[in-house]
Amino acid sequence: MLCGIAVVGNAQLADSNRTFRENGRIEVMNRFVNLKLSMSNDLENISVRTANQKFVLNPNGNAYFKLGFNYRFIAFSFKFAPDFLGGTNDNAIRGKTRFQGFGTDLNFKQSFHQLSYRRTRGFYLENTGDFNPAWQPGQAYFQFPQLYFTQFQLVSGYNFNPALSVNSLVAQTERQLKSAGAFMPYTSLRYYTVEDKTPLTANSSSQRSSNFEWILAPTYLYNHILKHDFYLAAGGGPGLGVLFTRLDTRRQNSTETTRSSDFVFRWHARAGLGHNGPRFFAGAYFEAQGANFKQQNTTATNREVRLFYSIFSGYRFNAPGTLKRLTDKASRII
After folding, report:
1. N or C: which end of the chain has fewer CB within 10 A?
2. What is the per-residue pLDDT for 72?
């Protein structure tokens, strides 16, 4: 999950102001605050397959922005999808989507922890033609304006090789000066709900799916340092876990609940290229993710593959003295 690109350049600062570790393989940028803006198309889609039917639900949007703040081991970010991004101006055809999210990270020398939240409201049925033979491209899709996807996720991992800087790839609070690779297993705890909040009538029903997923993933990452402050990083690995699901089918006067548990196999791969100079940094990565699990008490097997990108740029500013003193105290406590 943690593969990005950062470049180490020839700092124009006095050597007395620079801090290194791991015998000069990593430069620590503790005196700076990082502000970073990124854009990604990692938007949630919902795919439901039964023995006879398939439902592919997508949000009306192509990408979102993320504004991030990083200082030492602290990081937080806010995600938003403005209307001017492609795909959001055809509300009559695909409906209206609202997206928001935030995250916070604690990245230490060898351990890393990420907590994130995201919420998407409003989806359309991409395969509307499967349910309406008369439907033609350009016509309105079936829309679900009151369908909500909400997710909380906690990821914690450990880097077995301190000569590889995870912070240089994720938060840009360090700069990798020499190439290195590391085995980095992580565990992911993910709770998400899919809920239709359309008001019920005497002849209608709605559903809420509550899901808890635990994954353990052995991952390897390598960061290859190029010339002139550029780097190339790649990594990935498999993941194995379990998914617990509760499905509530609601009617005006009753609720029917079913529960299931399924083993889940996941995999991911990521590669990127970037620049990480003394002040300015930028880069891009591309990621592929896949999942496979068999639904309990059925013959259906869910498979999904997702491809997405992220591009980012940022700048380092001198940290205020008050912030430095507060984090110095926190570091001694931790």
Report:
1. C
2. 87
Global confidence as pTM: 0.86
> What CA–CA distance (Å, rounded) separates 183 from 273?
20
pLDDT in tens, 219-241: 999 999 998 899 999 999 999 99
What is the residue extent of each domain of the chain? 15-197+213-236+260-333
Q: Is the model's pLDDT at 245 over the cut of 70?
A: yes
Whole-angstrom distance, CA of residue 26 vs CA of residue 11: 13
| Cα gap 212→190, rounded to integer Å | 6
